[in-house]
Amino acid sequence: MCVAYPGKIININGNHANVDFSGSRVKINISMVDAKVGDYVLVHAGMALQKMKQEEAESLTNLFTEVNETTK
Hints:
- The protein is α+β, with helices and mostly antiparallel strands.
- The chain has one domain: SH3 type barrels (Roll).
- The chain has one helix spanning 54-70, and strands at residues 5-13, 16-21, 24-29, 40-44, 47-52.
- The protein has a five-stranded antiparallel beta sheet, covered by helices on one side.
- 18% of the residues are buried.
């Protein structure tokens, strides 16, 4: 199964950005979205698929955390 995960853009360099995923920073491609520093994006396979509102990103992150805790 494939899952997209939300993160916050920390900095941008061309078509790539460093994104914070709950404390882990990962370089991703943002060429498919019009994003800026501080935006939240939904990422799959190293590619930002869409921008998200902060509330949506936090809600989805909390859901993934809950699922992870119940499957331990």
